[in-house]
Amino acid sequence: MKIFKFISEKFIDLKNWFIKTHIFVKILIGIIIIGLGWFVTTKIFSNKNKTSYQTSKVERGTLIVAVTGSGQVSTANNGTISTLATGVVSKIYVKDGDEVAAGDKIAEVNLDLQGQQNSQQALSSYQSAKNSVESAKANMYSLQSDMFTKWESFYDLATNSTYQNSDGSPNYVNRALAEFHISEDNWLGAEAKYKNQQAVVNQTQTALGAAWSSYQQNSPTVYAPISGVVSGFSLQEGSVIVASSNTSNSAQSATKIATIKTKALPMVSISLTEIDVPKITLGDKATIKFDAFSDKTFTGKVISIDTAGVVSSGVTTYPTVIKLDTESNFILPNMAASANIITDTKDNVLLVPVAAVQKQTDGTSYVRVLKNGQPKQVTVETGLSSDTETEITSGLSEGDVVITNTVSSASTQQSNGQTQSAFGNTRIGGFGR
To answer: pTM surpassing 0.70?
Structure first.
């Protein structure tokens, strides 16, 4: 209550003072109030309607044009150690990180009843295939002998005086006789049987290789299928390996034991659009980043382009394989990756943001240059262009300030249009598609 009483008293004192004040002072106070109101109102509306510009300086640098794609690390440099054997692991020969050669022992398994049956069946098939090879070879040797015998008979007949003239030339008249043709056909038929048996021998040897591979898969010893470094090995003595079946056909599936990584350089498979794929060629350089460690950038080159394409939900993409330049233990199969494939570069050129370049109706290009706070339209000629920057071949000079956007606001924002990349201060276009 005391505060309200104090304010009321002061207001009454101010009112009495204003009543007693000279008319000239009253007029002066009114003018000051009106002037302040006009100044504030004018300032507000002038700021509200002020046009400002986003600008960028014309700079000299390196323009890099690229197309982008995403995908994952290929498993082309990885193999699988697997087995069809079932039972209890009795011995371990390797550990994670060991380097092995193809055929090296990985582990021993004490087979259970099902595992013993499968192993014996596989061994029987291998022995049968081995016998088939020997039998096919025996037939081949017999046919070879018969072929040489019949060739000798034909040769003796063809070179006697009945079928060969005294000067050694063929006697074509007598060679039209049936006796000559029968001997020749016997030789040619024996030769054809021998060649056919050679193919049979090759086939049985292939079957023998397949039977041996099947036996190795079912045998109590697990072998390394290829040479490389073991990874993902988690078995220990006493581990139980059980049979697993394929749900589609109920056949037993091999149990994965570990992975072997070869010394081949990692490869990344990415998908490109039908617009981008014509721009690239084999051997194009690329930069690659992985989601797992985005702070690192790797380099590589294009080694394969699937021009047949893949159609999914009506959209066509083209798988493209990039081989990295260096090996890294951090890069694992199926890691997500993105790649920028460099299609063209130009050094020491004048560059402006793409947004600064406009097109006339007659096809000519122009930019708006900001001079003394005022925009001025300048006709330019352009060269190579990326998604973010355009090369200016004539019409501008280094340091010119170009307008990239016009805004109506009280403040002016300025942008230099520079994009940082793995190439330092160079500019890379085409990464944001």
So the answer is: no
